[in-house]
Design goal:
InterPro entries: Amidase_dom, AS_sf. This is Amidase domain-containing protein. It comes from Protea cynaroides. It is globular and about 65 Å long. The protein has a single domain, classed as Amidase signature (AS) domain (Amidase signature (AS) enzymes, Alpha-Beta Complex). Helix 11 packs antiparallel against helix 12 (about 365-370). A ten-stranded mixed beta sheet has the order 1-3-2-6-8-7-11-12-10-9, sandwiched between helices. A two-stranded antiparallel ribbon has the order 4-5. It is an alpha+beta fold and about 475 residues long. It is built from 15 helices and twelve strands.
Amino acid sequence: MVPFGSISSLADATVAELHEAFKQNTLTSKQLVEYYLSQILKLNSTLRGIVEVNPDVLTLADQADEERRAGASISKSGLHGIPVLLKENIATLDKQNTTAGSFALLGSVVPRDAGVVVKLRSAGAIIFGKANLSEWAHYRPGPNGWSARGGQALNPYLMSADPRGSSTGSATSVAADMVAVSLGTETDGSIIGPSFANSVVGFKPTLGLTSRSGVIPISPRQDTVGPICRTVSDAVYVLDAIAGYDPYDNATELASKFIPSGGYKQFLKENGLQGKRLGIVRSPFFNFPNENSHLAQAFENHFQILSMILNSKQSGESTALRTEFKIALNSYLSELVSSPIRTLADAIAFNLKYSTLEMIPEFGHSIFLEAEKTTGTSDPVYQEALANLQRLTENGYVKLMTENNLDALVTPNSSVTSMIAIGGFPGISVPAGYGPNGAPFGICFSGLHGYEPRLIEVSYAFEQATKVRKPPSYLV
């Protein structure tokens, strides 16, 4: 007898498969949560992908099961009864912490759920817990996937390999089947990077398509919240739930115009590549070193290369981010109901007084200190950096896409992330294979604002045609 109806095993089950089992009454949300809890007990002490589990998670699962038995309308939602793991910089007004991995914010109380959490709860999703991350979303230099609260997250495919960051725990936890779906955040590469490195799907939406309210910020100009899952379809289920207007994030009003009638699931088409015009830039993205010749061969096999050259030198991003970080973080901290720190200056003082990071030489306080010295957006240095970023976006990425009439740009791993970060453009990373040592690599499809339907069609068709992803074997 099949244990869960149409699902032979809960391992790596998709959202659609889980919902079918719910529908057949062969699986409950409580059973699903208990399965993931058992996975955490087996794996998380080594992988350190999850910082904390919601203490009310079993109660929430029981509630979802009762709604399903009662035939409540919410039970028809695509994420109803599905546990969702949140990166630990995404606020929840419950018994969980929101600290960005830093002890400086332990015990702080947020004024409300983050905008994406409001939407997840409205869709009936179960807020499962908080994922480890590179501390302060990697805005303090240090090892990818390390935070004071969570320790060092490891790559389940090759534990000596770089797990990337900053949404490290969101990616490793999904890859290791400690949860089906998760949310990450990206300022520059923090969804795409850990997704390719851990052989999962990472979806960075158009800036403002998903709310950033209640997310510990770096830059409102670049910050984005998006799904990290094992399949494109699961990522789309999550995007459908979290996209849309939030009165606490002005950017969502403008970006809401990009949401198609009927949502995003309609673009999960196996023939989605038909008629699409894809651009692949050989230089610099496909100039692989000799030791990565397997990457070059894999991508040559996947696509017929289109010959185009992009000559774009990204400059000014770090200067702009430092100014924006100070303003945005001070604003976030000032709105907390209670907190051990209230300003960036307080965070610096805390770190200097209590930091245990001296044991990790790569870690430092330099970015925080540089950000604290900034004097605001009227500073000519900031204005010059911002103007340069806008020129690079228009004369580089936008020009490349529009002059060549591209539906998507195709790049390996996370090589394109700065380009799409500074312009607020979307991208989807999909597993593309494994190196000789077992370390994963990925392929990224990116586009202009509102190109999510095209990117979903392309990435889903690629995923279904290749089906290269395999579960990790936890090699040391």
